[in-house]
Amino acid sequence: MTDHFDLCVIGGGPAGEKGAAQAAYFGKKVCLVERAPKLGGAAVNTGTVPSKTLRETALYFSGLRQRGLYGVEYKVKRDITIGDFMHRERAVVESSWQLIEQNLERHEVTRLRGDARFTSPDELLVTRFKEEDRRITAGVFLVATGSRPSRPDEIPFDGRIVVDSDDVLSLSAIPKRLVVIGGGVIGCEYASIFAALGVRVTIVNNRERLLSHLDADLSDALRQEMTRRLDMQVLVDTSVKAITVKEEIASLTLSSGRELSADCVLYCAGREGQTADLGLAAAGVATNARGFIDVDAQYRTANRKVFAAGDVIGFPALASTAMEQARVAMCHAFDLKYKTQVSNVLPYGVWTVPEVATVGLGVEEARRQGISVETGRASFQDNPRGQIIGDTEGFVKLIFRTDNEQLVGAAVMGEGACELIHIPAAVIHHGGSLDYFIQCVFNYPTLSDAFKYAAYDGLQRLRRRVSKAMEPRSRSSTPASVRTRPETD
Q1: Do the Cβ atoms of 4 and 305 come closer than 8 Å?
Q2: Tell me, what DSSP letter sits at residue 477?
Q3: For residue 135, what is the DSSP state?
């Protein structure tokens, strides 16, 4: 049996779903092939949605948000079971499945269950156990099969004691001691979740700091808060040399010679593209050593009919960007006058405890690019809303050019950071400066108001920098454009 479509999408995650819906919206005949029982990909089934839901569950069970607010000492509830822990996660995931199904039905996208493999540059073979094979031809193909956790041969994965980020959702019980290998986003998020539940967590990271894409001050602040608030141990600049499992206990030997023991080891050090079984060679599509597909600026592969988007092409590997990449890819594939590129202003959110979010350039990256920048900071300690909710360790940081005060980056740590970051993201996208925050009126009391005081702080820092550079000239020669924070504020 052979069927022809304008577009055939392989993979039902964020990129696959949105790419299919985008083309179908403009009247294209679309089919989507997914081998898993449920749509949603890693974002819904094993990654983004489950981990963020589990974080909220952990904060609820631990009472971490309420500690110290009303003179009541909260502790993790007794006799918590893995079923209690996972109940909300399952409910949210099931709701997400329904939303995806409804979206595809609304756009009249044909859905096929099975394994897809290219047999030629313009044909797919879709196979499923006990069902007749189907051959699919299409004018355009979109590969959106995502990524999977790396599983090095030297790590003795067993799905019970030594697990990856997919396995962790299937643990039969909450461990008492957990070692997380890897200080990236996934490792830090899961470490926070389990530590919030009272699990003794140790992170082992082979780099000098956690979340190495962050500026040093932000990474250090996060590490201090994770260790202080969650009683977590963080070991950096060290690696795991060996792991052995005996009598349900994992023993780890580190490069420093130190020995660790744990009930569970979570390996979170890298991902690779889900491309091994797609027959991409038959389609003339190239991948790199980690299985990620090479694409151009329009998300087109070496085969002009085959596009790829989402985690399967590697960095930045975010659900948010995956959706936009697929939409843009389909606009180029069918010459749709709608979107031509993905925004270069990408917000990054890390749902640790506390949350961390960034957008634009960090100080270190800006200086590497030869841009002279200054920063402005405001602490939630000095913010009425921060005092009300008890988040006095959080802060916002604005990064701006010294020549024209244009905002080039921002960072937030603390409650709601992954929501708050969209305010400076919008300012950066439209080429705005600190003046936006100075002139804007924010609701009171809100955490958002901290951006205004970060802007004032930045202007004061800039004034001091200019004054110092102009010494020994008189203060009266300081340019009027370098403003100060009004006394009334």
Answers
A1: no
A2: G
A3: E
Over residues 339-380, the pLDDT tens digits come to 899 999 999 999 999 999 999 999 999 999 999 999 999 999
Residue-wise pLDDT tens digits, 370-415: 999 999 999 999 999 999 988 989 999 999 999 999 999 999 999 9
At position 272, the amino acid (one-letter code) is: E
Q: Please, what are the domains in the chain? A: 2-149+272-333 (3.50.50.60), 162-269 (3.50.50.60), 354-477 (3.30.390.30)
Q: How far apart are CA 35 and CA 322, in angstroms?
A: 19
The reply to whether the predicted model has a pTM over 0.70 is yes
Distance CA 54, CA 309 (A): 27
Give exposure, 245-279, as e/b (b: 16+ Cβ within 10 Å).
eeeeebebebeeeeebebbbbbbbbebbbbbeebb
Q: Which two tokens stand for residue 193?
A: 């979740």
Residue with tokens 């490792």: 187
Q: How many residues does the chain have?
A: 489
How many Cβ atoms are within 10 Å of 65's Cβ, its own excluded? 16
Residue 80: what residue type? I
